[in-house]
Amino acid sequence: MRLLEGRVSIITGATRGIGKGIAERFAEQGSHVIFTYVSSDEKARALEQELEAKGVKAKGYKFDVADFKACEEMVTDVVKEFGQIDVVVNNAGITRDTLLMRMSEDQWDAVINTNLKSVFNMTKAVQRTMLKQRKGSIVNLSSVVGVKGNAGQANYAASKAGILGFTKSVALELGSRNIRSNAIAPGFIETEMTAALDEATVQGWRDAIPLKRGGTTEDVANLALFLASDLSAYITGQVIHVDGGMLT
Ligand code: NAP
Predict the structure, then answer these.
(1) Of 72, 102, 166, 169, which sits with the fewest C-beta atoms within 10 Å of its C-beta?
(2) pLDDT tens digits, residue range 44-54?
(3) The domain containing residue 33 runs over which residues?
């Protein structure tokens, strides 16, 4: 029996990296996948085909997750078509790194709106459906940086720390209706983006991690699968680190 057989999952930002890895893992485990993206049309169509080849329904929606109304409209559409929403993975995120001294208001707003406001938007949009179902799992992508802070990432760290407070508050508010809310804090995950970095620098990062390697999108997707599925039925309000022991 597959872990998400017949479930309906929404994943934000799934055309690349971690979100794509989660979409693939969920589809393999029987979940229909509705995903969002903001620019990569070709990748979105290719992902729909790849996921449907696994025997589930897949649909990509193009809009900015920082847009409250757009999130609501997408969820209304999904409920009309699928009749239920079992899982939401709030994954879409951006960085606009620079020291505070040089950080513009636009760089602050872009990161807070895309990374943090989006989590409010999507959670608020699915809340009514999950309350009616008396079941749901909300999985939010935070970061080691949201727990520890990082020079040059004050905006990103604030957005990811904000997600932790939001995740725990939602767990407290919605627990009595069997709606769970947990956060994932990845460390250094190797994606297409990090493949473009200088190999010596990346090797230095790997050497500093107790497990002596960067994480893969599959490492994060496996945790997302656990939190989405009934294997974690008694787990809510938690922040789980997937970082090779980086913070230990
Ligand atoms: P990524 O490769 O840059 O992919 C980001 C995804 O989000 C893309 O699908 C992108 O769509 C989408 N997106 C960006 N802005 C959006 C918006 N405004 N509205 C809708 N979709 C939007 O990111 P990643 O490295 O996989 O990271 C995924 C999440 O994990 C992020 O929240 C990140 O902060 C967190 N994280 C990553 C790491 C890491 O090492 N990679 C570590 C800790 C935490 P398009 O393709 O259309 O642009």
Answers:
(1) 102
(2) 999 999 999 99
(3) 8-242
